């Protein structure tokens, strides 16, 4: 504990005159990986939105009955616009969760004391 | 079956009660000691409510394949639900030692004021959402009552009915005899809602008569519905009872129990309906016979316009009905945003993530939920399309019952078919119960932790807190029952707005709290208030008909005003985000020490 705090103050001293760039390298790894993963997920969501809505709209809006084509019993646009991306997204989610998401120490909570509230603030 | 279900839930309550005995009462009762495993987190955090089993199937039945696009964003819900905030929120809730969402905001920004505002918002939204679920629970209970089930729907059980007595009362109320005379043909006909009762009344009277006597006619036509009230009471006793015993864990475990049940129920029903209808291709083609191109193409089938076109309606609605688009392009895009982000931002969901055990659990949850969603939503769509082929002409008002009806119809020739049907019928009941219990936990944690412990008695002993928590839950239950015995129209308006409002209030602030060092108290406050008030305004404009009616969306009475044809949630997010960023940048940066404590591996001392 004591040793830790000495180390910490040494580090702080070293960083004292340095730019924010070095400060940010102190960012908790969980914060950094979480932020990166959030951005990837955002990208996946945007891709899914664009692909699904476009496909469904182009193939499936305001058509006469005569143009109805079925793929495995689904209307063609539902199959390509919903079923296929849904299955792919499930696979991507699996790969993402297994391969990309980094595990990290979430931190241990202190035992609750009388002032666990952190009332101040 | 239902009795078994209730007993099962109470048993879970007792088990959860034992589990929460460990450690501090508050953390155990309201957060399950941060011990949620992957199954519990995955299958309960992005809550399915009663809507999954009643509202959604009814939409598929009514509007057709287009509902697949409406719900399509659920393909990414597992990954967004846990991938955007999951890990960081779980970490932050440990760093702030938060038990509730307002706790987290208070400590993250070092501002009791922010905590209070957050808890008031949560209490407001969740109360309204809970009122709605209580009502749904009572209705399911009533339908499942022996002899009053969906298949034995008697006229005299309809809650809206004019009988001899009500006509006498009307005369006493000062309604002229000639008006009462005109109503006599309606005597003895039951209706399921005030709206339905109004239709024939309107047709029977002149415009002036209708306008001046509408109120008393509805009042006298509303019969006190004993089954509904008994259902409501049994429902309330069960849910409040087991939640009281087991707190957060009871809510989560019943949720899990019900989710698993639902999964198997849906798969069995998928098999049953598809074999009865002879494959999906047959189902799609047969369902078309009774509908129109809108059933298989966007923007969705419009039952009203179709009915008018084929001239099968009664004289009452002879006027041409404008086409009503269920899902125009703008709404298709909107819903891709709404489902995904309202899931991420819902307070009950945020709490679940805060309770997750570790990062492995969060990862595992992502793919567990992917499999689960794939196995629930696509099959449900197929089931209800087949439903339209098998039971082609359910009136719009009964389309909510498509799943129970199919369950009974398709399993009746099976050995122990009634048991299987019972299993499927129990699903919506379980969904409603578990939703209510999770709301109860959040509401009572809000009252006890965020208000009582913070502001009234900071030094309360664990015993006092326990008593306060129980009192808060019983109180919330009593209010919900009271409100639901005679619901007022206003209430419905707020209920419709609550789910969207809650997410629009909390999503952006939660993202900013997690990832933006520069976010300030003022920024977060304005973001919350901006999001909430934007959504509220658009809903009120729509609900009270201030703006002209729009020819798309769901066929319900209470719908928002879609500014530029886009869902209010998107406007709420836009307002919330803009205000949050601009106000944060305009105010003094937050205390560097505090930020470092929340973001850095080795915080500045």
Description of the structure:
- The complex is a heterodimer of chains A (121) and B (605).
- Chain A is mainly alpha-helical and 121 residues long.
- Chain A has a domain at 27-100.
- Chain A has helices at residues 2-15, 20-24, 29-60, 76-100; strands at 70-71, 74-75.
- Chain A has a two-stranded antiparallel sheet.
- In chain A, helix 3 runs antiparallel to helix 4.
- In chain A, 23% of the residues are buried.
- Mean pLDDT of chain A is 74; it is low at 6-24 and 110-121.
- Chain B has two domains: 2-153 and 228-485, Up-down Bundle (Sodium/glucose cotransporter), CATH 1.20.1730.10; 160-224, no CATH class.
- Chain B contains 27 helices and two strands.
- Chain B has helices spanning 2-20, 25-31, 38-45, 50-53, 55-63, 67-70, 77-83, 86-95, 101-109, 112-144, 164-172, 177-183, 194-204, 207-221, 226-277, 280-289, 303-309, 329-345, 347-354, 359-390, 402-411, 417-456, 462-485, 489-515, 521-543, 568-586, 592-599, and strands spanning 160-161, 190-191.
- Mean pLDDT of chain B is 79; it is low at 147-157 and 311-321.
- Classes of the chains: A mainly alpha (121), B mainly alpha (605).
- The interface between A and B is large, with 72 and 78 residues.
């Amino acid at each position: 504990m004591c040793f830790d705090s000495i180390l910490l103050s040494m580090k702080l001293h070293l960083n004292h005159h340095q730019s924010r760039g070095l400060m940010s390298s102190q960012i908790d790894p969980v914060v950094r990986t979480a932020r990166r993963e959030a951005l990837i997920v955002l990208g996946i969501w945007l891709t899914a939105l664009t692909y699904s809505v476009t496909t469904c709209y182009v193939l499936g809006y305001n058509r006469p009955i005569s143009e109805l084509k079925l793929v495995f019993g689904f209307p063609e646009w539902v199959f390509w616009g919903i079923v296929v991306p849904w299955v792919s997204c499930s696979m991507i989610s699996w790969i993402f969760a297994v391969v990309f998401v980094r595990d990290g120490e979430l931190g241990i909570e202190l035992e609750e004391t009388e002032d666990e509230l952190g009332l101040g603030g | 079956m239902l009795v078994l279900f209730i007993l099962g839930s109470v048993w879970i309550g007792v088990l959860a009660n034992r589990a929460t005995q460990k450690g501090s009462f508050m953390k155990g009762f309201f957060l399950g000691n941060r011990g949620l495993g992957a199954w519990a987190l995955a299958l309960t955090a992005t809550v399915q409510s009663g809507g999954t089993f009643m509202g959604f199937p009814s939409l598929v039945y009514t509007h057709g394949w287009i509902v697949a696009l409406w719900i399509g964003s659920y393909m990414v819900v597992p990954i967004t639900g846990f991938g955007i905030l999951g890990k960081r929120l779980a970490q932050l809730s440990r760093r702030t030692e938060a038990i509730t969402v307002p706790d987290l905001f208070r400590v993250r920004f070092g501002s009791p004021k922010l905590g209070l505002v957050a808890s008031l918002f949560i209490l407001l939204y969740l109360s309204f959402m809970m009122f709605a679920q209580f009502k749904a629970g009572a209705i399911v209970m009533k339908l499942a009552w022996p002899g009053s089930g969906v298949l034995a729907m008697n006229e005299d059980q309809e809650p809206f009915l004019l009988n001899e007595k009500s006509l006498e009362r009307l005369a006493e109320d000062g309604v002229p005899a000639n008006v009462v005379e005109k109503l006599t043909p309606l005597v003895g006909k039951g209706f399921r809602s005030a709206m339905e009762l109004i239709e024939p009344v309107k047709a029977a009277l002149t415009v002036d008569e209708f306008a001046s006597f509408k109120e008393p006619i509805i009042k006298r036509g509303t019969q006190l519905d004993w089954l509904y009230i008994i259902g409501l009471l049994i429902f309330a006793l069960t849910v409040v009872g087991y939640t009281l015993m087991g707190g957060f864990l009871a809510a989560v475990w019943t949720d899990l129990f019900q989710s698993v049940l639902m999964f198997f129920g849906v798969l069995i029903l998928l098999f049953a309906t598809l074999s009865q209808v002879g494959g999906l291709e047959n189902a799609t083609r047969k369902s078309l016979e009774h509908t129109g191109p809108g059933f298989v193409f966007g923007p969705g089938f419009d039952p009203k316009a179709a009915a008018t076109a084929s001239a099968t309606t009664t004289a009452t609605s002879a006027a041409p009905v404008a086409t009503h688009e269920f899902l125009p392009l703008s709404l298709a895009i909107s819903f891709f945003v709404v489902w995904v982000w309202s899931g991420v931002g819902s307070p009950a969901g945020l709490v679940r993530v805060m309770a997750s055990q570790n990062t492995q659990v969060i990862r595992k949850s992502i793919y567990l939920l992917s499999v689960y969603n794939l196995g629930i939503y696509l099959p449900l769509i197929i089931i209800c399309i087949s439903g339209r082929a098998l039971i082609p002409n359910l009136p719009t008002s009964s389309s909510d019952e498509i799943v129970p009806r199919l369950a009974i119809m398709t399993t009746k020739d099976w050995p122990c078919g009634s048991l299987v049907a019972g299993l499927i019928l129990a699903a919506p009941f379980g969904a409603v119960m578990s939703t209510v219990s999770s709301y109860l936990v959040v509401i009572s944690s809000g009252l006890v932790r965020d208000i009582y412990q913070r502001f009234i008695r900071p030094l309360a002993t664990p015993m006092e807190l326990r008593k306060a928590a129980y009192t808060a839950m019983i109180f919330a239950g009593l209010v919900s029952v009271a409100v639901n015995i005679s619901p007022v129209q206003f209430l419905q308006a707020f209920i419709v707005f609550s789910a969207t409002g809650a997410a629009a209030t909390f999503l952006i602030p939660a993202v900013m709290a997690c990832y933006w060092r520069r976010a300030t108290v003022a920024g977060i406050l304005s973001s919350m208030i901006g999001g909430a008030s934007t959504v509220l305004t658009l809903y009120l404009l729509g609900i009270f008909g201030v703006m002209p009616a729009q020819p798309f969306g769901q066929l319900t009475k209470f719908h928002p005003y879609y500014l530029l044809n886009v869902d209010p949630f998107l406007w709420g997010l836009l307002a919330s985000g803009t205000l949050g960023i601009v106000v944060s940048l305009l105010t003094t940066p937050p205390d560097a020490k505090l930020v470092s404590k929340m973001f850095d591996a080795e915080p500045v001392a």
